[in-house]
Specification:
148 residues, Nucleotidyltransferase, domain 5, single chain, 5-stranded mixed beta sheet, alpha/beta
Length: 148
């Protein structure tokens, strides 16, 4: 404690026990309060597509850009190049109110190839872009879901 028995006088060392107690109490308070902090980052998680009927077809105004491993690009099943894609998408988005599109590609594609198409789509005026996996069970995206 603060005194020593047997020697004359007082011990002049600082007793740090109360400081450690306060530190531990503060640590426990912060550990309990940390999970309560809310973050304001909206996250949209894709939901699994509902099963489609066989007679249901894709909407004609649906825009799907497909990327293959051999760097070929198709816009609604029509082969195109990256330069032609930008001019075509710019013209399409200029004429329509719905500026949604899908990019479908293989999961093993390099990120740079996908981001090049994303940049072209954004410059062309696309508002919402959804990424689809080519190996997905449902071959046609469902535009009526609203999670694009």
């Amino acid at each position: 404690m603060g005194m020593t028995v047997g020697n004359k006088g007082f011990k002049h060392d600082i007793n740090i026990t109360p400081y450690i107690d306060i530190l531990l109490v503060l640590l426990i308070i912060f550990m309990v309060a940390a999970p309560l902090k809310k973050y304001d980052h909206p996250v949209r998680v894709p939901q699994p597509a509902p099963p489609q009927k066989q007679d249901q077809k894709a909407k004609p105004d649906l825009i799907v850009v497909e990327l293959d491993l051999d760097h070929t690009i198709r816009l609604n099943s029509q082969p195109t190049t990256l330069e032609k894609l930008e001019s075509t998408l710019t013209e399409v988005f200029r004429r329509r109110a719905s500026k949604n599109m899908f990019i479908r590609g293989d999961a093993s594609l390099p990120y740079g190839d996908v981001f090049a198409v994303l940049d072209v789509a954004k410059r062309s005026g696309a508002a919402d872009i959804a990424l689809l996996d080519k190996n997905e069970k449902n071959p046609q995206p469902n535009a009526a879901r609203g999670d694009h």
